[in-house]
Amino acid sequence: MNTVGHLINGQIVNDAARLQDVYNPSTGEVSKQVALASKTTVEQAIAAAEAAFPEWRNTPPIKRARIMFRFKELLEQNAERIAQMIGEEHGKIAHDALGELQRGIENVEYACGAPELLKGEHSKNVGPNIDSWSEFQPLGVVAGITPFNFPAMVPLWMFPMAIVCGNCFVLKPSERDPSSTLFIAQLLQEAGLPDGVMNVVNGDKEAVDTLLGDSRVQAISFVGSTPIAEYIYKTANANGKRCQALGGAKNHAIVMPDADMDNAVNQLLGAAFGSSGERCMALSVAVAVGDAAADALIEKMQAAMQSLKVGAYSDKSNDFGPVITKAHQQKVVGYIDSAEAQGATIVVDGRNPQVAGHENGFFVGGTLIDRVSPDMLSYKEEIFGPVLQVVRVDSMQAAMDLIDAHEYGNGTCIFTRDGEAARYFSDNIKVGMVGINVPLPVPVAYHSFGGWKRSLFGDLHAYGPDAVRFYTKRKTVTQRWPSAGVRESVSFSMPTMK
Ligand code: NAD
Residues in domain Aldehyde dehydrogenase (predicted)? Predict the structure, then answer.
């Protein structure tokens, strides 16, 4: 059986002391194993990154960017292969996997602008013959820890920007679907990156804790569930590291009575069930304003869901594939059971989907639940499955209060034709990423991505302009060149321009 190893100092390394099974979720079978890095292996990766740093730091940004241009081409040339790897281990259908990759590539395109992004700030004559400038210097060794649900895109949120900013990187991807991530790192190597600048260690808590505890690691970017995000943030901070930790979500869509209901239903279908709902931006709660809107939504949604196709990643006609593991399948079903037990109405029940030829796959069918209330477990917690819950309220303010009261604040959306209502909503809602008739408002690569409340621990968002700030530290230089022979007088007061 194949084993997925690590990439350290430009070489594939297999630290086979501990191995974990990797599944094909569409069949339920073990397809390969992944090596779980020991502390020693992670320390080797950190050492390789540290050794590569002095030269990489001094490599002109334009040369770093040229490697990213070649990397982008290699990603595009290998897109089908990467999508296949994602499908095999994650279960994502090819059209969705290619979409994920494309959104990742857009971060590489942004990173190609490094010379422009790193130009810094300059002020001439801040005092008599005194100039001052701020430059943005790399941090050194930085690390990324990523979740299973976007094995290509989320790592690409991190390392292209970290690396063009002059840092060296150690990535700890999800151990559940490691192959596409490792292959992508190898493509970066092929694009001409010097050995040691980019390293990948597969692993679990042991690898993560080694990164958190090692004083050579200057900063950590994390994306995953909220309890782990909080742990990473607190531990990194306690150890003096810069940290951004993006967590879980419960994204609500407000459906106003004036919304184009057919359009809203189409948008909700994709945003709730695409990728089996295993997206941190999935719309998992529809808040219908007024019973008329709720009834129309339920009726149209129920009808539209009859044609939803769940099945194996390899059949491109499927709308979405399995969830990641057997345990997760059971967890999602458990949330549906709990909603039913707490009095909600199961309108479309996906608990026993029939997928011919794939009876052991980890499938959950599209599920629609009506009359969900905020006290229910299925409302409070992130389900991360193909389940759309409908909450009924009687005003837009009540819908906004519901969203604001939830512990998560990643994404949200409003479906309406009323510009004034939409403007009020986007201005006041306590959520980091807002859509107006846009169900998945995932910011493009030249903005930055991040939620509010317990969806993000830290100050700076992921990728885009915030990534330049996260992966560099500001140094401000003030300079004077006195004319030869000029002696300045002694002054003990604070220098001012008065
Ligand atoms: P997860 O938190 O289980 O794992 C994320 C990473 O943390 C993995 O690399 C994993 O190996 C590591 N990890 C897991 N348990 C750990 C522990 N006890 N100690 C140290 N490290 C540990 O998340 P997941 O199940 O892979 O991904 C799904 C979650 O990620 C969902 O909650 C989803 O909302 C979230 N997510 C958030 C965003 C965002 O941008 N906010 C994006 C994608 C996914």
Answer: 18-477
pTM: 0.97
The CA-CA-CA angle for residues 274, 104, 20, to 5°, reads: 75
- DSSP single-letter state for residue 253: E
Residue 361 backbone zone (phi > 0: left; psi -120 to 50: alpha; other: beta): beta
Q: Is 318 left (phi over 0), alpha (psi -120 to 50) or beta?
A: beta
For 18-54, the pLDDT digits (tens) are 999 999 999 999 999 999 999 999 999 999 999 999 9
* Residue 261 contacts residue 304 (beta carbons within 8 Å): no
Nearest alpha-carbon partner for 474 in 137, 233, 119: 137
- Quick: pLDDT tens for 264-280: 999 999 999 999 999 99
Question: What secondary structure letter does DSSP report for 310?
Answer: B
Which of 201, 230, 280, 284 gets mutated to test ligand 1 (max ligand atoms within 8 A of its CB)? Answer: 280
Taking the C-alpha atoms of residue 175 and residue 177, their distance in angstroms, rounded to an integer, is 6
Q: Which of 3, 91, 84, 9 is nearest to 44 (CA)?
A: 9
Ligand 1 centroid to residue 146 C-alpha, Å: 6
pLDDT band at 68 (very low <50, low <70, confident <90, very high): very high
Question: Is pLDDT of 151 > 80?
Answer: yes
Residues with C-beta less than 6 Å from any ligand 1 atom = 145-150, 154, 172, 174-175, 204-205, 208, 223-225, 228, 246-249, 280, 382, 384, 410, 451, 455
Does position 198 have pLDDT exceeding 90, yes or no? Answer: yes
Q: pLDDT (tens digit, 9 = 90+) per residue, 417-439?
A: 999 999 999 999 999 999 999 99
Burial 485-498 (b: 16+ CB within 10 A, else e): eeeeeeeeeeeeee
Is the confidence at residue 1, as pLDDT, over 80? Answer: no
Length of the chain: 498
Distance from residue 70's CA to the centre of ligand 1 (Å): 30
Choosing from 112, 168, 243, 280, the catalytic residue is: 280
Residue 14 has pLDDT above 80, yes or no: yes
The residue to mutate among 158, 174, 181, 331, having the most atoms of ligand 1 within 8 angstroms of its beta carbon, is 174
Say whether 280 is catalytic.
Answer: yes
Backbone angles phi, psi at 472, to 5 degrees: -135, 160
Classify 320 as helix, strand or coil. strand
